[in-house]
Each structure stands twice: as structure tokens, then as C-alpha cells.
């Protein structure tokens, strides 16, 4: 057909049109098949893939925090609780303008620049659609202000969370410890998947030692979210498993009594239930309020605690290392008897001092100014009156190596294995120890010092309590522990049942009697607390020198700073016939075990036995 | 002009009878259109999160459109042939008006504010252009000569260039397609077709470099690799294919589509509405829709094939294919076969101008149908 040829006949035009319609329709059908093929491919062949993808789109797994395990004392008194707290959080994706939002919030409630700075830090390591806390612990007033204004605060959300609360305040701070926000170094050492639901981790004390038990297991909630991440509905959840509730051996009442009678002295007290090794009380004064640490302690509060001369943050009970003084005399006496260096009949004469051949300086007895304890002093009297010269002689005779190896069986010079972190091992010196640490050779003079619990020797109050419990139990391997049961299931010993201390039965009896007489006879150094006792106490006082005083100088407390005064110590167990409780008490710079430490111990023991009696009456 | 049309019509004996038989309606078209609009309302209700507001507005447009269709069907076909130029010019003026005083939404000027409603003149052009070209070509020699083809191309180009300036590349291409269908059906010579094809291929690079804006190029690139920017440019297409695919054979149920109900799906009640249908009613829903569309298009072609005039044939045929190409482009776009262009799904997507324009187009086809072989033999 050329340019000018055109149809005039309508039939031909119609035929051409029909051909074109036919041709176009074939094309259209082909295109239609192609498109429907695409839909078939998407909806039938790849259906499952897209179902998965659409579910991934909308279904989000949200962690559900397990409540942290509660901590109770032996009578069920609550020591660590969880309380709801309200935090202001921001989801960056949902805010129109973060800066404007923060400014708006600051105009409504008090948000410090420090809060904002910390918020920005957290913002850097957030995940999309994560709630980033801006301010913790909103007051009721702040919450209502935010609620009223919520319509113009897109992206800000108030979230309720559980916060640790210690209802007893400072009373158990050193035992329970506290939780705090997970810091960066902790973040590196934990499995983050376990901590999706919480910002807190045990920092100290039982909270730290039993972290994994207290933490609980994270639950998950499957929620349907829309494209902006807002939760539309819950599709079911896997409940979190709450952290295990811990029941301690601790007796809150005994702890309270000890705390009350120690007041603000720098002191530590440990009481052990002999049959179980359970810690009945563990006090280190002064203490601090652990609640302040939970949400982050303020800088001023913290520096006040750190700068305080009394070191309230210092757990003296397990970390304080003190010369034990005369409190180790019963143990050394037992070692001397068992090692046959002395017998129960062996006596010495005490002129008030002791002279080692070749050493000019004499070792004094503590009552050297009264001319010593006199002649014919046997072991019992040396214990009752705390005669140093007897132990100088005996210690030299036993030798440091035997003293050290036997002492370790009583738990000295090593950690006791209590369920707390940070326990100090103290020092039970030996020749090797001196060589290693000081690079010097051992002198007999060193042995003489150690024989009355001075010199290089250092012990923690907990070690002294363990030693006392092992003496009281006639050598049982008492291991101290705080936690009795998790979720009412007893915590088993870790399987190590060590051999008891091998000392002949009559020596135990002899020593128990001697220690009883420390309290119950007028000559006893602790006879003051023996009055009006309706139970028996076996004890030993100690006075530990903080500074060494030259032999020819007098100890004059008015001449020296109070922080250099002697420490007052007392160990005891009771009742003597069937020992239940062993205690160790140290009052820093308390001067005399007999006048300062022992009376305090008496009050605590009275409280213990009164309560036992009360419980027995109730039990009936 | 317009008076004489009526006078002549009324004077013919057949016309008087037809008038006495009152309203002339093509029931096949009317029923299918109403079913499709009903489906559209159901899906709009679901896609807007059970909003009665949108449904009510859309229903208003449908009723208005239906009224216009019935009204237009009453006019004789020659009326449309004669008034085509005027309608076309009104459309072009409206397009110029948009560029001068249009409302800007999302960076594109597409709407004219008529106080009581908003008008999208580019939608109107989808019917004005085939009407104009059909009327122009039908009066000329068939098949059209080069001169007339060139004149037709100019007539097509004017609105296309105006729409391009909005900018709206997708609609511009669709409008040129509508004009092209008329020329094709009019029997335009194969060498022109081949020439046009070569020209189009040659124009593609210049289209890419000179005409297409960055966001338009982005859409094309996104089509090739939607995963490249999942949360940005690729989002729409990933979410819509997910919605379609997760629907399966029978769908998740009405208002139960998670992709659409939870707002993962963009533009779910307008351009992407097929994804809602596919998600909630499955492939079965898509097939039912396509069947209805096929019947509708077939009916239009049937009317065209039976028309006694060249204008009637060209107009009915080109509207049928125009309608077809809208459907195909939308289905391809949403399922990731074509780049995202602003093309609603005819009769289903929410949007007033589009609905009314389509009904108007079907009104003209009905008026053509009234004077077909069939209707004449009946009368």
C-alpha cells in the first residue's frame, strides 16, 4: 500500500480494524498471561517465603524481664526486694525531632545535664526502636505531668520496671551487696542474650556471687508491630523464669543486735552456726545504704563514702586483716599439746618478760608492769589469764613451720571459701613466706611474735570465727556459708568433706574447759561477762597491737593517735557443752578485748540465746 | 452545533422511539462496572484500616461517575465526535491551569482546586486524548496518511508534554499510549509502526538523560534491585511483593492482611491496592478481578467491532486497550515488573477524578453501543 491509497469501502476499513483488534488482543492476552504468571509465581510458588517474610515484618520478639530472685534471712525476713520504678525513655525512631523533644521534656520535668549526657552515651549503642532511658525513677508528680502532655511528646515513653530495693538499708550492705547498672567492662564479660531484659547486675556481696541464680531466665513475648514499630497486640509469650529466691543462714535479728551494739565503731562481727557452717551474722561497721547504688549513686554521696576515715565501703568481716593477738592462743595451745611440745601438766614461771638468747630486747608480757603472771603457770592458766610468756616459750619450741601447717587446718592463712567474692586470705607466716615476700630469713624473734598472734600474722574476722567454730566442734571442717537454699532447695556442699583436725579428744575437752574459764572464773580475762549467765560461754580475749612499741616504752594511749590504739578482739562459742554458735569480734582501736570486745559479744550472744529460747517456746 | 445535533436526532423516527424507550444503558457494562466498584469499596475499607470516610467519599465519586456515564450514554455518538475537539481543548487548558495554579502535593503539581473538589486533569486526558484522536482520524482517510498521523502525534504530544512538566512520567507515557492505540487500530502502516518503535528505542537514552528526573531514574534502578535500599527506595516494592506473595491461593481474609493492616504497605488504598486484594483474597481474588476486567474489555471491543462508524470503532477499541494497559501497568508495577509510576488500578483504587473519567469513557462507549449493528437491528 502506498501513501495515498486509502479505503473508501467501510467493509474493508472494518476488516482492517478487526485485524488490528485481533492482533492487539493476542498481545494483550500474552501480556495478561505474563502478569498472571508473575502473580502465580509470587502467590503459589514462593508463597512460603513471603509468609515468612511478612511474619518477620510484623512479629517481634520482645524480651520479658524475669523478676530478680528475692533474698530472705533464715526466718523469712525480706532482705532484698523488687519494687516498681518508672523511667522516662525515648525511642528515637518515633520522635520527630530528638533535640526538640529533649528540650520539651526538660521544660516539663527536671532533667539534669548529666542525665542528658548519659542518655546520649546510651543512644550511641542502641538498637533501632529501642527504648533508651533518659531519666530513672520518676516521681508520681513527674509521671502525671508527662501523662498529661504525652500527646505532644511523640517518642517519649514512661516504662515501669522492677528495681532492686533493700528494705533493711545499711544493715546487710556488706553481706548482700547491691546491684547496679551494667557497665562497659561487665558488658564484655557477660552473655548479652541473658541480660536483654535488665539493666542491672550484681556488683557486690551475695548479689554478685549468686548473680546467675538471682538473674532468672529471660522470657519472650511475641508481639505484632506495625511498620512504625508500635506494638499492636500480643501473639503469645514464653514466660520468664524468675530468679531463684535465696534463703540465707543469716538471722536478721542477731545482725540487728550486733549492728546496734557496735554502733558507729569501726568493727566487724561474724557469727557461725557450728553444725552447718551457716553465717548467722556478719556485720562490718560503719555501713552504707546499698539503695543509693542501685540507680547510680550521686558524685557527692560517693565521694563522701570514699573519703570517710571510717571506710564504710570496706567489708572488714572478710577483707579486714588484723593481727589476731591472743585469740589464737587456744589454737596454738592445742597444737602444742597434739605435737607433744607441752603436756597439760607442763608449767612455766612468768617474770613478766621473756629473753631470747642473743637478743638484747626482752619480750614483755601484757601485764609486765604487775610483774607477770607468777610461777607455775600451766596451759589452762595461760589461756585464762592470757599469759604471753607461756606462749613465747611454747611457740619457740613448736617452731614456725609446725605452727603454720597446723594453723592452716584451722583455716588461717587462706580464704575460708565463703560464698562471697573478695575475701582476703590473711597471713600465716612461715620461713618460706618471709623469704618470698620480704626476701629475708626467719628469726626466732619472728616466731615469738607469731606465738601471741602478732608480728607478721594477720587474720580476718571471718577466719577467726571459722577457727573458733573448728575448735568448738572439736576439729570438724566447718566451712562458712551464707546461702542456705535456693528456691527452698538446699545448696549442697561442693562435695569436699575435708578431714577433721586431728587432735586427741581430751585436748579438745581441756581447751574447751580452759576457754570456759576465761569467762566463768574470776581470773578469766573475760570474767566481766560471766555474770548472770544462764548458759555457758567459752571465749578468748585478744588485744592486738597496731604499732610496735619498744620494750622499754610504755603504751600510753594519750600519746598516740586513736587510729593507732590497740584493736580489741574476742572469740567465743556457746554453749560449751554442745556448741551451737561460734563468734569472732574485732573492734578497731577498741584497746582491750576484755573490756571492749567481750561485753559486746555477750549482748549479741544473749540476744541469740533469748531468741532460741523464744523460738523453742513458740515451737512448743 | 450542539443544538442541531439534538434537532436532527429528534426528527428521525428511530430516535423518537429510542427516546420514548427512555434511558439507554448497556447492562453488561453497567453490571460489571458496579461489581468492580463494589469490590473496590470493600478493599478500600480494608486498606484504610476500616475507614468509613474513604468508603463514603469513593461511593460519592462512583455514584457521580455512574450518573455521568448514564448521562453520556444518552448522547448520540455523533455528538461526541463533534465535541471531541472542545473536550480536548478543555482538558489541555486544565493541564495548563495545573501548571499555573495547581496544588502541589509531594513535589508534583497534579491537582486543580475547584473549591468543591479537586480535579486531576491528567486523569481526564486519558479519555480526552483517545476521543480527540478517534474523532480526528475517523474523518480522514483510513488507513491514515503520514500527514494525518503527524497531526495526530502533535495532538498527542501537547498534553503529554504538559503532563511531563508536572512532572508525571508514568501518566505521560500512558496518555501517549492511549493516542497510539487509536492510530494502531486505525490501521497505521506497519512501516510507521516500525519507525515509531525504532524512534522510541533511540529516544530512550535521551529520555534517561534529559527528561527523567533523579527520583524517576531511582525508581527504575530500584526495580532492578529492590534489596539495595530496603528501607528507602526498595521499601515499596519489597513490601508489596511480600503482601502479594503471603496471600497465597485464598488470602488471609478480608481486613486480615497483616502487610496492609499494619501499614507496611505504602499507598495501600491508591496505587498499591492490588497488593491488599492479593494479600487478603489471594490469587483467587486476583483471578476474579482479572476475569471481570476481561469481560469489561471484551464487551468494549465487541461494541467497537459492531459499531457502524469508524469513530465508534476507534473510540471503543482505544478505550478498551487504554483500560487494559492501565490495568496491566498497575499489576506490573505493584508486583515489581515495572518501575513505580503513579498509575492507579482502574475502578478499584481510591481516587475521584480517575473513577469519574473512566465512567465518562464508558458512557461514551455506551453511546456508541446504542448505535451499533445490534441496537439498530433491535430497533
Percent of residues in helices of chain B comes to over 70%
Say how many strands of chain A there are: 21
What overall form of chain A do the CA principal axes indicate? elongated
Strand order of the largest sheet of chain B: 1-2-3
Low-confidence sequence ranges of chain B: 1-11, 13-20
Structure, described:
- The complex is a heterodimer of chains A (620) and B (379).
- In chain A, 38% of the residues lie in helices and 18% in strands.
- Chain A has 620 residues and is of the alpha+beta class.
- In chain A, the strands form 6 sheets. In chain A, strands 2, 3, 4, 5, 10, 17 and 18 form a 7-stranded mixed sheet that branches. Chain A has a 5-stranded antiparallel sheet with strand order 12-11-21-20-19. A 3-stranded antiparallel sheet of chain A has the order 1-8-9.
- In chain A, helix 14 (329-338) runs antiparallel to helix 21.
- The termini of chain A are far apart.
- Chain B has helices at residues 2-11, 13-20, 27-47, 52-74, 77-101, 121-139, 146-164, 169-185, 190-211, 214-224, 235-247, 258-261, 273-306, 310-334, 352-370, 373-378, and strands at 103-105, 108-113, 118-119.
- Mean pLDDT of chain B is 84; it is low at 1-11 and 13-20.
- Chain B is globular and about 55 Å long.
- In chain B, helix 3 (27-47) runs antiparallel to helix 13 (273-306), helix 6 runs parallel beside helix 15 and helix 13 runs antiparallel to helix 14 (310-334).
- By secondary structure, chain B is mostly helical.
- Chains A and B meet through helix 1 and helix 2 of A and helix 8, helix 11, helix 13 and helix 14 of B.
